[in-house]
Amino acid sequence: MSDSCQDVGFLAGYRVVDFTQFEAGPSCTEALAWLGAEVVKIENPKTGDPARRVLSGTTPDDPWYFHMFNANKKSLTVDLKAPKGLELVKQMLKKADVTIENMAPGTIERLGLGYDAVKAVNPSIIYCSIQGFGTGSPYEKGLAFDMIAQAAGGVIVRVDFWTYTCINSLRPLPYVKAWADKHKDAGLVVIGVHTPEFSVEKERVNVERAVRDLKVAFPVAIDSGYRIWEAFNNEYWPALYFIDAKGRNRHHHFGEGQYVEAERVLQDLFKERGAGGLDESTVRVTGEGVEAAASAAVQSPETYIGYGRGERFASPVRLARGVPTTYRVPDRLARNDWGLVGSWNIGPESALLETAGGRIAFRFHSRDLHLVLAPGNDGRCSFQGETGRRRAR
Known about the structure:
By secondary structure, the protein is α/β, with parallel strands linked by helices. It contains 11 helices and 14 strands. The termini are far apart.
């Protein structure tokens, strides 16, 4: 077997200055590194390659995703906006054989490292710029994130903004999952965007757990910084956007319902693209648990146990903001009134039980009740529920 082995280090001695990030660029420079080239990756001193963190805004933890595209390289942190940093990189480029960049369109030029500037420093260097869309394309100045590139490539994309504690976001999920499965061969790509309403929904581990428990198989972008939300100028949970094969937003729907109409929109977009042999029926699903359709008998609203948005709090003891207080409920609660029993610290978004034995009393009229709970510092949560004609605790 040794006779069939070859030394793949034939690029040894070649120097590559690497300005790439995410996937497309780093995968190219990694190939050069494996073939023996000396690849020096230039990174921002504050954040590094964004791929070093899975969730925006968190401390870099160098996940497997980053290592998959950056093995066998060297790394140097340089502030390219500082004169000393720019001069340092130009000295490296003088001695380099290749440089590769895949920054956002126009960024490398603004830094003073565009093609003409680098060629002036080193006329013999091979300059490679990776872009999502070619020169002259109507999208040439745009970022080529997956949903945009796929849409422009002829794929129908459906974007679903949701959050895991919002019952209105959970009830449409059976339909979204059914559409993703039914129409995948026709070219449908469903992308979930989890944008939090409350701070607890910003915790990555909570989102991951919810995605697993809800059996969501399509990709879900964690948008805790609201970057995607703001890019769509979105204001609602849930919000469904339908993007055609040319990357245009052709339809949207806010809230629950209109599932047949939504699937008809998808089918029309497939026909526009020239798809044949479509199944023109519409899915029929029955959600269970938190995904069950709303009951027609609901006479109680969404209720918040926090002073920020809490209403109809009923107690002989006045609500105290952010201070542990012992509460009790009146002898009788009016419909949709709620109260607390025991020592509670009521914050803007939630209430924290200070000692065991506390109760939540809520008089409601509905088929079922869903309550968002979190465990204490010991990781345990003990809860008992009782229902009756007068009171739910």
